[in-house]
Amino acid sequence: MLKAVIFDDEYIVLQGLQTMIDWKQYGIELAGTAANGTDALALFEATRPDIVFTDIRMPGMDGLEVIENILSMAPDTICIVFSGFNEFEYVKKALKLGVVDYLEKPITIPMIEEAIKRTIEKIEHRQNVSMIQSKWNDMRAELLEKATFDLLMLGKEAIPKWRESFGEEAERIKG
Q1: Are strands 101-104 and 2-7 parallel, antiparallel or unpaired?
Q2: Beta carbons of 37 and 66 less than 8 angstroms apart
Q3: Which residues on neighbouring strands pair with residue 121, listed in sequence order?
Q4: Residue 174 and residue 23: Cα distance in Å, rounded?
Q5: What crossing angle do the helices spanning 88-97 and 63-73 adopt, rounded to 10°?
């Protein structure tokens, strides 16, 4: 199950998102909420969620600073920002930090649900890519093993196959 946290200094936003979203329906456990940037960072460190929903303007430390700290500790964390201030500089900085989504307040339940769906798709895509990379690495290890065995057993006859299998990397091998 994925874990998520919500950071916002507006009590009604925190309570609304906690109670009006069926988090379990999306396979998400809501691990907690925080009303200021300092508590938000502490909550993140304690729970290490997969998804962070945060307001930009909060006391203590703003949401963009919180995101910057979070992504320096855990770069794979998915961050979604919401703000009542539609200022281009905030949007630009949020995107530079790697925020996945930027929602303008007032936030509606359908807006959050769509953001959750997009986030889950992104996480599934990452997992698929990771699985493919892992399989590829396993296959390369097997290929290397077989090609090395062929070199040992067949000698120079195996060199063309070695070059075909490893391309430019084959030129780095000496021996």
Answers
A1: unpaired
A2: yes
A3: none
A4: 56
A5: 10
